[in-house]
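Practice problem: predict the structure.
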Amino acid sequence: MSAHSPLNNKEGCTMRKTLNMFVVSVFCLALGAVGVTGAVAKSTGEILSNSEVTKIVEHKVGSDVLSISLHATKGGHYYYRVTVDNTPDDEVKDVYVNARTGQIVQVIEHPSDMILGEDEAG
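Answer:
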């Protein structure tokens, strides 16, 4: 920038700060878009709620839901990842559920060496 640049004076400093705040705001909005979009999809009934998915998974896979989270693919498809315990074979599993239909898409068993026993949990 030259010494006579409009961004080199007091007004320019304010303009740079405003521009920086705008860029940071847009970035934060972009990061939160999936969460906001997911909330809108839930409220309009476009996808199943957490409690509906929990009931499906408890009935079909395991009785203790440890966690549930909503995710979106780049194509705009929603799915839930549900971690369950107390399954019939006594394993911790991740269950992937289509958020629109409730269909269980995939079940992944956690390797037993990744799960700490009560004596190891310390």
